[in-house]
Amino acid sequence: MITSDTLAGPEIRLSSDLQALTDEQVVARVLSGEAELFEILMRRYNQRLYRVARAILFDDAEAEDVMQDAYVRAWSHLEQFAGRSSFATWLTRIAVHEALARARRGRRQVRLEDGTEETMRSLSPAEAGPEQRAIQSDLRNTLEVAMEALPESFRSILMLREIEGLSTAETAVCLDISESLVKTRLHRARAALRHEVESRSRAALSEAFTFHLSRCDRVVAAVLERIRSSQQSAFPPI
């Protein structure tokens, strides 16, 4: 049986051979005594668990707490992993349950939803110049704010399906709902995010390319200076 003491010591060096192991192979080796290899699983799924927990709890610190709780729970019950679903699905389901339980306790109840698959793809990092990166950053911020305005049930679907790329069946297992409900919620989530983004974009457009007073003064002064130069006495000195 694995215990917390077996994890003591420095972090393991993740060689290419270790990184090539499947989740199930890592689990088998952890259960056989190589408990330090559990680090591989944590590093492999840190981002997914953070995103899922953050989508439900709407709080960075609590999301990290949920990640830790989920890993400890998975560690404590690793012998119960039966392989009926992938380890990734099993672990994600634990994290979802931990996050939902925490939300139900009233520590943080959030709302977040969905977005279109095409829009979410734009969040991917791309090789671009400073201007393009700035645009992508603004878009990412807009999407995150829009998502935070939507219900938790839609947000969870979005995170699992669109961002983490889980299948409909895997998402259904993680959330303990039917596949048909996953499809329905995903469709509604995409529509809701699209509406939210469009609403926020319209509001932003009304303030785009504003012509501030300082710029107005500068242009007026420059024009008058050019006219005065061409017509000498047509205008008095500024």
Keywords:
mainly alpha
Q: How would you characterize the overall build of this protein?
A:
It is a single chain. 66% of the residues lie in helices and 0% in strands. The chain is elongated and about 95 Å long. With 238 residues, it is mostly helical. The model is unreliable at 107-126 (pLDDT under 50). It starts with 15 loop residues before the first helix and ends in a 7-residue tail after the last helix. It is built from eleven helices and no strands.
Profile the largest sheet: none
Structural class: mainly alpha
**Shape estimate:** elongated
Distance between the termini: 87 Å
Order of helices and strands: HHHHHHHHHHH
Computed over alpha carbons, the radius of gyration is: 26 Å
Q: Tally the beta strands.
A: 0
What is the share of helical residues?
A: 55-70%
* Number of contiguous helices: 11
Calculate the mean pLDDT score and round it: 77
Indicate the proportion of strand residues.
Answer: under 5%
**Unreliable runs:** 107-126
